[in-house]
Specification:
The complex is a heterohexamer, with 1 copy of chain A (252 residues), 1 copy of chain B (56 residues), 2 copies of chain C (214 residues) and 2 copies of chain D (226 residues). Chain A has 252 residues and is mainly alpha-helical. Chain A is 75% helix and 0% strand. The chains are: A mainly alpha (252), B mainly alpha (56), C alpha/beta (214), D mainly alpha (226). The structure holds protoporphyrin IX containing FE, adenosine-5'-triphosphate (ATP) (2 copies) and magnesium ion (2 copies).
Chain lengths: 252, 56, 214, 226, 226, 214
């Protein structure tokens, strides 16, 4: 009735048993890439753009970390929702594990964006925090991440916690755009043009390169930590299976 | 060199931003490694327990 | 009407409770589920109701997997778990009436009072159930059996908290249902002499309690 | 179809009957709302201008909090005594039954807030027209709160610390209602500005919530009961 | 005497251990506090002067609400699983045991608020000295909240709608702390005024609560268990 | 040590559950409390513990009313009600240790593990109790009996949810306690052959269930 062999082919790496060693091989690669790219991006930003920045704008150097983490924070939310959705549709355990592994790294990125953003704010506006739409959205994003993690850790039963948090992520997906709209445009009478000019357009191309390279490095970092966390989750959940007890690291 | 660290008066801010990012991005993998060790230790303990029991 | 279970597997936490469990139950049959504490009886019963999703295998009602026919199956099903499912703030008779209405029945007052009488709660009909003793609460829950039109009863330790008279009564009720073409699956730790119909016994003890560990 | 409506009415009546037995619970939410409202002048000071300024926000925040707090009554009691598992096993559509429970919940917690809100107007010296607007937006907004909240309540069923957890999940999701709800009230105090866009947005939220939340809540319930 | 302290430590450790198992609960209260804090600028608007004006009240109201919400963890779990009835039957002084539970509760819900409060200072653009005062008054006031709250929590044990009911009982009792707590913060923003009287009053509240609340709570527990 | 009950009367709601109830219990005695559902057994046991205040009469321990000697009496008392009193988030062994500590004992790890072994929870010591089945949770609660130094055990339906092996085990435990100078008061609806010591039976059925009403 079911296309069984198809299923096995398609879902080969969706079995934690197969995914675990694969992830183990990928992690060092991602770490290397992350260090290299972040190093390169920051080197570029700190040493190759000095002439562009006149003395008042030195603080622009925060942008490399700030923008990279801000982007990652948003991207990882999308990734998390995608995993959750796949999990709910195909009922694959691994997708749920990936979703929860992504959430924590996303939270870390959000925190970095908020902290570096706040520091930037102190340098450029003279205040640590302002209730500007972008910042507020980010704060709310942090709350939503935290809610996801809190729900997950409040439920012991892994099956329930997987599905419950996935559903929450989906609900979040539906509401987050509305929140974004509401925060950006609290007064619908004056909100004809939502598309304010992207701040990116005002950035020098030279700085942009550094930013993009750093962001790529942050991507690699996220891959690495997500895979590490996924492996931990797999070990924890499958600790009584025979394949885990045959693992090299267990028998050492 | 000190001029580089000074960064036109913004050194403290820039470096503290970098430091927080670095700190968090080192802390996260460190926690992961610690967690991995504890999970592995747990698995080993379960295994020992089973072996002891099968001998019983 | 047949309840078929095919190659069922359930895993709780990291313990495999049962694998490859297959059986079928027909009209006029009673199945007694046996097993030590923690052997997975409750888990199996909840899977049979569709409240717990099995890890492998199928549960078929009339040949169709129960996940694919929620309301149809639910019309034929009556489940009584560890919890009574009665509202403490409502009176005994309100509880009974609402439960029946949600199951799609609208019994007359006489029927309801008759059921209460039978189950030993005569003159308690206007008590809020919060003021009943443990065993009396259980009786309110059991009164549903007398009103329900469901074919398949799934009862998790129905004899708990009942006194001797009530246990006997419940035995008769179950026997009657089975004799009239019903099916019952139940668990109990008490030795209860259930005589009528074809009795099947299923033991979950094959895997001893600490199988994984010893 | 008929049997569907039957289940709807039975459950609606049951929940209202239960509330009737515990009339005090309805008043508790109401008084919570009023207490939060009246704490602000105590904490912030009671200058007229300040009060007018903060009134829209305070009303809505008090409404969010009251409705969040009341959420744990939506399913928690039914979960504990096993009635909920019986509901999911009833031969009726679960989303319909969930919808009935949401309606009952709104009637018992949202509607009273709408009706009491003129009092807030008095406390905070708001003009009469503003009070009307406030009632209107509360009428449009509080059902959305109940319906979004129901999803979170279903997800956190039976979890320890459920009360705070549910607030954590739900308050960020309430933000659009808060922003436009309080926005409408503030705008109504400014001469010449129209509050129609606000009302349209709030109605749109309500419509969306009506369509999606019963299904989402029903799925969440099934997940939680496993 | 020794055995008294023994029970105290055993229970304190038990409650902290339970919290450790559910670390997320501590964070939930914290984030609830932060969320409430950040709802206000969204609802009220974010002009600098308004923010500074409402900050003292908002901080305290958020603290009151967070600590009220967390109250139902104090005894409710122990009540439901029967641990509480075992505690009252233990051969130990009940007030001492209750006191241990209060301390644990404050460590888990009050102290984190004190520690996070500087962030509120940033959000609302408060001067540094005011942030210091805010932490100090929170440190003095939150234990009082836990201790008064414990009495109400014990009285409402096992009642349906306990969450809202407890808030209703307790929020009016919190008003003195609210008034002097936020008063101290506002005063500290005015040059030349001393906040010492506020601190003295808050300390007096704490002392009174320390003396009476364990006994009152123990009696309330016995009544609720009957 | 004597437990004396003199002219006890309890009224719940508007029903008089028992009046003029008197008995006494000495060392080496076991008392089985009998009665239909709703006859007031739980109420009586809770009164004996001081958890429910009787309307009339006295309960004396060693000649002193129990209300006047809380901690003293509590040191000699072990009560196990319908609820298990264990924390779902703690592991089995943590639960046991903390319960013992609150009762004033500090048993060694060996003693604790021994108790778990006896009660059939060997190798479950590090499980959070939330992950145990109903019967296993009950066993955790019962493990206290093995550690406690209390003289008087008050057990409300201790056999509920236990499987056959566990019921037998508990019988032995109770018998041992009675033989070693302890006293036990218990209720049960199951027919449990308890043989040792002097057995007293007290029936609360004198007033039939629906006495007041029919
Ligand atoms: C949605 C996520 C975010 C993105 C994509 C983002 C991106 C950017 C970009 C591209 C710039 C450079 C703009 C320019 O050159 O003028 C910038 C500036 C800035 N960001 Fe962010 N950021 C985000 C979140 C945050 C957060 C959360 C904070 C504060 C906590 C923050 C604070 C700032 C500040 C203060 C500036 C300087 C603004 C100026 O100089 O005009 N940002 N951000
Ligand atoms: N909270 C209450 N308010 C009023 N009456 C109550 C309350 N709780 C119990 N009762 C009444 O007290 C009587 C005795 O209850 P109790 O729980 O002591 O019975 P029991 O002998 O333990 O019964 P069971 O065998 O069912 O456990 C019951 O008839 C019940 O109606
Ligand atoms: N939430 C859970 N998470 C993990 N494991 C669980 C959970 N609930 C139960 N289990 C495990 O599942 C097993 C079976 O539990 P179940 O309740 O089905 O047993 P049972 O046969 O009904 O036992 P009893 O006779 O004691 O009621 C137990 O060993 C228990 O440890
Ligand atoms: Mg069971
Ligand atoms: Mg009883």
């Amino acid at each position: 009735m079911y296309p069984l062999n198809m299923k096995i082919n398609w879902f080969k790496y969706s079995a934690p048993m197969n995914f675990y060693p694969l992830a183990g091989k990928l992690i060092p690669i991602f770490w290397l890439l992350a260090i290299a790219l972040i190093g390169l991006g920051l080197y570029w930003g700190f040493f190759k753009t000095a002439d562009i920045l006149n003395d008042q704008k030195q603080y622009y150097r925060i942008i490399y970390v700030h923008v990279a983490s801000a982007w990652m924070a948003m991207w990882l939310y999308a990734v998390m929702v995608a995993w959750a959705m796949i999990g709910l549709i195909f009922n694959t355990r691994l997708s749920f594990m990936m979703a929860s592994a992504t959430a924590v790294t996303g939270t870390v990125m959000t925190v970095i964006a908020l902290v570096t953003g706040a520091i930037w704010g102190k340098t450029s506006w003279g205040t640590w925090w302002d209730w500007d739409p972008k910042l507020t959205t980010f704060l709310i994003l942090l709350f939503i991440y935290i809610g996801y993690i809190a729900l997950q850790s409040a439920i012991d039963d892994t099956r329930r916690s997987d599905k419950a948090s996935a559903l929450l992520a989906l609900v979040g997906l539906a509401i987050v755009p509305v929140i974004y709209y509401a925060v950006n445009c609290p007064d619908p009478n004056e909100c004809a043009s939502l598309h304010q000019e992207s701040s990116l357009k005002r950035v020098e191309s030279n700085i942009l390169i550094g930013m993009l390279v750093t962001t790529l490095g942050f991507w690699m970092y996220s891959f690495a930590t997500i895979l590490m966390r996924a492996r931990n989750i797999i070990l924890e959940r499958e600790r009584n299976t025979s394949w885990v007890s045959k693992l090299e690291e267990v028998n050492r | 060199m000190s001029e580089f660290f000074h960064m036109g008066g913004f050194g403290a801010y820039i470096w503290s931003a970098m430091a927080t990012a670095l700190f968090l991005m080192l802390l996260e993998p460190m926690m992961l490694v610690i967690k991995r060790r504890s999970v592995l230790a747990d698995i080993k303990r379960i295994k020992r327990l089973e072996e002891r029991k099968s001998r019983r | 009407m047949i309840l078929e279970v095919k190659n069922l597997q359930c895993i709780r936490g990291d313990r495999e409770l049962f694998t490859d469990l297959s059986f079928q139950l027909e009209a006029n049959q009673l199945m007694i589920l046996e097993g030590q504490n923690g052997s997975g009886k409750t888990t199996l019963l909840r899977s049979l109701c569709g409240l717990y999703l099995q890890d492998e295998g199928d549960i078929l009602w009339d040949g169709v997997p129960i996940q694919k026919q929620d309301e149809n199956y639910h019309r034929d099903l009556l489940y009584l778990g560890h919890l009574n499912g009665i509202k403490a703030d409502l009176t005994v008779i309100e509880n009974l009436r609402i439960n029946a209405a949600l199951a799609g029945n609208t019994p007359s007052l006489d029927v309801l009072m008759g059921a209460l009488d039978t189950i030993g709660l005569y003159a308690f009909e206007d008590f809020p159930t919060s003021q009943l003793s443990q065993g009396q609460k259980r009786r309110v829950a059991l009164a549903r059996l007398l009103i329900s039109k469901a074919k398949l009863w799934i009862l998790d330790e129905p004899f708990v908290a009942l006194d001797v008279a009530a246990v006997e009564l419940l035995q008769t009720i179950i026997a009657n249902h089975v004799d009239n073409g019903g099916m019952v699956v139940l668990t109990t730790h008490q030795e209860v002499p259930l005589t009528s119909g074809k009795i099947k016994r299923l033991s979950l003890n094959e895997k001893p309690l600490d199988d994984g560990e010893c | 179809m008929l049997i569907m409506f039957n289940a709807f009415w039975v459950l609606l009546k049951r929940d209202l009957l239960l509330a009737l037995r515990r009339r005090s619970e309805v008043f508790t939410v109401l008084f919570f709302f009023l207490i939060v409202i009246s704490l602000f002048p105590l904490g912030v000071g009671s200058e007229d201008a300040t009060l007018k300024k903060i009134a829209p926000g305070v009303v809505w925040i008090a409404a969010l909090l009251a409705s969040t707090l009341a959420l744990d009554r939506l399913f928690a009691n039914d979960y504990v005594d096993g009635a909920l598992e019986q509901l999911t096993l009833a031969p009726q559509s679960l989303p319909i039954m969930v919808f009935a429970k949401m309606i009952a919940h709104w009637l018992l917690t949202g509607l009273p807030l709408v009706l009491i809100s003129p009092l807030v107007g008095l406390f905070y010296h708001l003009p009469t027209s503003t009070i009307g607007v406030m009632m209107l937006v509360l009428l449009l907004g509080t059902p959305v709160l109940s319906m979004i909240g129901a999803i979170a309540a279903a997800l956190t069923l039976g979890l320890r610390g459920g009360g705070v957890l549910v607030s954590l999940l739900v308050l960020p999701l309430y933000i659009p209602v808060l922003v436009y709800g309080s926005g409408a009230i503030s705008t109504s105090m400014v001469v010449g500005l129209s509050i129609q866009p606000y009302l349209l947005l709030l109605s749109a939220f309500m419509l969306l919530a009506l369509i999606f939340s019963p299904w989402a809540t029903a799925s969440a319930l099934k997940i939680s009961l496993e």
